[in-house]
Amino acid sequence: MNMYLWGLLSVSFGAGQGRGALGSVLLTALIMTAPVLLLLRRFQLPFGSVTVIYGLNTLMMSLMMMPGEWRVPLLLLLAGLVADGFLVALRPSPARPWALRGFAFLLPMLVWAPYLGGAAVLGLSELSLELWLGISVMAGLGGVALSALVVPPTLPAEAQSA
Q: 31 falls in which pLDDT band (50, 70, 90)?
């Protein structure tokens, strides 16, 4: 159902269609980040897991929506490899909530900053630097919000006893 709102479908964000397209970017960022964070709540993911999740998802969506497109799946494979590197370096888990929140911020940023920035540099998009970078940061903040839902902060002692 969400394939029509898939933010990696097109980068031709003109002035008139920007609002709907940018909303689809943020929705796609949350949809792609949530499964990784839910898995991290329960498991210590091995290296390559984010690459497989992002690569398979993007490959299948590209085959359905943009047959013959190879650049977007390649970008997501590279973003997945970098995310797996951060996964090993930060070791996010419920026991390490700040590492989890940092990873949750970086995960969408690794996808959207290169994607939107590259499209702007190549002239495929009319987004300004402020807009595509702002969208990437908003996607990262959405990841942090998801991490707070997946692993809520602990309550103070007096609030727990009431």
A: very high
